[in-house]
Amino acid sequence: MAELKMAPFNAGNVPGPKMGRVTAPAVIGKMIKRAKRPLLICGSNIEKHGSIDKAIEIGKKGIPIAATGNAIVAFRKKGYTDNVKYALLTDLVNCLCDPEWKGLDGKGNYDTVIFIGSLYYLVSGVLSSIKNFAPHLKALAIDPYYQPNAEMTFGDIWKKQDDYLAMLDEVIGEL
Amino acid sequence: MVKLKAGIFDIEDLENVQIEIKEIMGEKMPEEEWALMGPTPKPKIPDLRYWDRILLKRYPPFYAPQCDTCILCTMGKCDLTGNKNGACGISLEATQGRFVLLACMIGTSAHIGHGRHMFHDIKSMRGPLDKIPIDFGSEVNIEAPLTRLIAGVKPKTLADLENVLNYVEENIVQLGDSLHTGQEGSALDFESKAYQMGMLDSIGKEISDISQMMAFKFPIGPNRPLCDAGMGTLDTNKAVVFVIGHNAPPATDICDYVSDNNLDDKIDIGGSCCTSLDANRYSAKVKLAAGLGRQLKVIRAGLADCIVVDEQCVRADLLSQAKKVQSPVIFTNDKNMHNMEIRDGDDPDKIVEDLVSGKVPGVVLLDPRNVGEVAVKTAMKMKDIRRKNNWLLSDENFKKYAESCTNCGTCTYQCPQGIDVGKANKKAAEGDPSALSDQFDICIGCGRCEQVCPQNIPIIDMYTKAAYMTGRIQNEKGKIRQARGPIFDTEIRNVGAPLVLGTIPGIIAPIGCGNYPNGTRDVYTIVKEFASRGYIVPMTGCMLIDAGFQKNEEGKTVFEEYDDVFDKGGVLNIGSCVANAHIHDAAIKVANIFAQRNIRGNYAEIADYILNRLGACGVAWGAMSQKAASIAAGFNRLGVPAVVGPHSIKYRRSFMGRKDKEEDWYVYDARNGERVYVGPVPEHLLVVAETIEECIPLMAKLCMRAADTPAGRSIKLTHYIDLNQKYLGGYPDDWHYFVRSEADLPMAKKAELLQILESDQGWKIDWKLKKIVEGPKVRYDPSFDPTNIKDLIRAKKE
């Protein structure tokens, strides 16, 4: 992991003193495992990098999925909709920032959100909302990019799809 | 100062006395009483704050900070992470509001600066403002709805508008003052001020556009001619003058010079951004060659023999980019001079000689009347010189550069879109330029990639070459109707009822810049989708230009396929960015003409009317500029929601409703003051969509209003559900929120939807009558008169 770059995928995206920690997949997997109310947020790039199949694997481990943008179409194509709900990303994160929100299932807000398949710059923005205004949430990013506004994030590995998928397998292995 | 009392005076022996007469009050006639004055003429910062608080309660700001620090004063840098306070005491949240206000101030200043500059030019080019009447002809009696609404003034000449501009300018300064360290500390009050700024922006745009329309006699109304659009329409067999910016008088002088000297067969005039739109209103010969996203590509393709720029959205490195292709540049606006010499007063032929010889790369000509001759003569001489060079990469160099790419990804890290240029270069090296050609359209033309390429590959040139190799640029030839300006009163009379009743499902207004997430085709998709469904689609700015060179299967653009009438399924070129005031105006005129609401100085009531009744939604899919921020704030304060593209998260602020918070969706019934739950309509006021597939159904949803009739709601719901199915592959999760009775349900799906309401929502259905017996939280009452403003309740409930 040490060789993974801690450089924002969009080079100028340096938000401030608190930057996301590049974290080993196994640690991220353990964080998700420990979460009481995790939510996997799948973005419109979910079909890139082979992420969709891994997201479904995570979903099958019982972690509910919010599909943003047009990601819901990808899940429908795959025939996996069991615990997948469509969400408008900014609407979802606006709700997530409210500790009193009842959640997508009406059972209360979440304690850990995991981003995958993200439209990089958009998710970077909403991760900033969470970082700055939602102290009750842990935000993890498991895209093949370094996300400076996440609490824990993968490093840049977007050019090595196989390595990236192996990292996702490590995460899944912990669940 | 000596103050004289009333009487007759005889002053003798006056010597060496200077008398300065500033204003002859006797000639300042009171304005004719054309309507009762409403409560807030020329509102100042606090006057509409109560309306803002109503909006901000239902649609509070959702902030996505782009930077966690503040560096505005020397007590910093301050770390505000986690919503901490800085050294001055301001929180991160309030800092976001402050930044939004700053952005809106920049945007508003650009539009108002345009207006003020326009007045200066008009005075010198067309004479005194009080001698230029405001006359849109017999079809427009309500000539300046925003000016009437906000200032309470019914302007007769441009001089009346100049007085209103004074009000606007003063208020911008007051709002700017609030940005200083140690002033406002509340995020919500910053947002109220941003709304105020947005409102000033809207009236400023109206003033600017009416002024240029009257002074330069821009055409008005529908059935405008079709004009050339797209990079491929520029005729390089002629000398090409390329105009860029947002303030058209210099471009009009170029048109005049070409016409006066019969040079049409020798000179082609094209442009990008709003100057091309406004110059095209002056003379249809001006080609709408490119929106903002193509600006650098046109320059680097070497298409321009002379570039003339005025103000706003002009590349800051224009001069160095133009130098690369030997295009001389004429700067015509004092806001944008790039360290060039001001040459007004010099012999035009000497200026041309200096430009053509390359002695200077550019000049400044601040008097628009000096521009035409210099630009045209320069272009004609440069054509002979420049055509000896081929500004496109040679096939050999294209291949060489593609092969030199090491696929290191440095460019991708710099690219706002994250484009994988290396992958496309690899294909190009193998002889297939198609991937680079596709990226030509997705690339927003910023050029950041080139600065970091370790192999010094001119990536913009690679894109352009690839786009020529595949025929993309040559085929980028479309048609756009010439801009038509304001909507006719007669058109409003025809559509007022269908719009408010909902049988025309809404107004969808695509506006703004070219920072699209995935290329220009999305613009066409939006326009086509809504026009074909009977929405009215008025457009302005770069989004309009980008819609003009996309075609259907028959090779027709949306401007050829749909009429430019403000009626069901109409697609209208309203004009440049400042012309989008006429879209605000259309909404105001519905309230005035159809509903007979008094608009004079009556902002909040009209905004409340629009929010509750008029299904309209703006879309700025590629919003980039601070002007887009102020435009959106102006639309939002007037009760019109807007959807913006994913890059707009960088504006830092959305206005998001919460449909799960029932208490947010109560309004008053103006008849008796009863509090009535109306459901989440419209659900958001300013919202970022992630993809075009998400954007389109979202816009349909945001056209629903509290006062929709069952027929109207049924039509709107039909489109919302249908568009969800088309673009997202299924029913939306929230459609039941919008059902008040079985009459609201789409006819074709009624039985199926009743079934879902019963099974998923637990509603009780009478299957014999196919009626909803129990379930909806919202009830429909045909006499319901919704308002968010307590003062508009006519009789309090006992």
What report would you give on this structure?
The complex is a heterodimer of chains A (175) and B (798). Chain A has 6 helices and 7 strands. With 175 residues, chain A is α/β, with parallel strands linked by helices. Chain A has a 7-stranded parallel beta sheet with strand order 1-7-6-5-2-3-4, sandwiched between helices. In chain A, helix 2 (51-60) links the parallel strand 2 and strand 3. Chain A is 36% helix and 14% strand. Chain A has a single domain (21-173), classed as Rossmann fold (3-Layer(aba) Sandwich), CATH 3.40.50. By secondary structure, chain B is of the alpha/beta class. Chain B folds into 4 domains: 34-215, Helicase, Ruva Protein, domain 3, CATH 1.10.8; 226-386, 3-Layer(aba) Sandwich (Rossmann fold), CATH 3.40.50.2030; 395-469, no CATH class; 478-774, 3-Layer(aba) Sandwich (Rossmann fold). Chain B is 41% helix and 11% strand. In chain B, the strands form 8 sheets. A 6-stranded parallel beta sheet of chain B has the order 7-6-5-8-9-10, with helices on both faces. In chain B, strands 12-15-16-20 form a 4-stranded parallel beta sheet, with helices on both faces. Chain B is globular. Chains A and B meet through helix 3, helix 4 and helix 5 of A and helix 13 and helix 25 of B.
Task: Sum up the structure in keywords.
heterodimer, A: 175 residues, alpha/beta, Rossmann fold, seven-stranded parallel sheet, 7 strands, globular, B: 798 residues, Helicase, Ruva Protein, domain 3, 4 domains, six-stranded parallel sheet, four-stranded parallel sheet, 11% strand
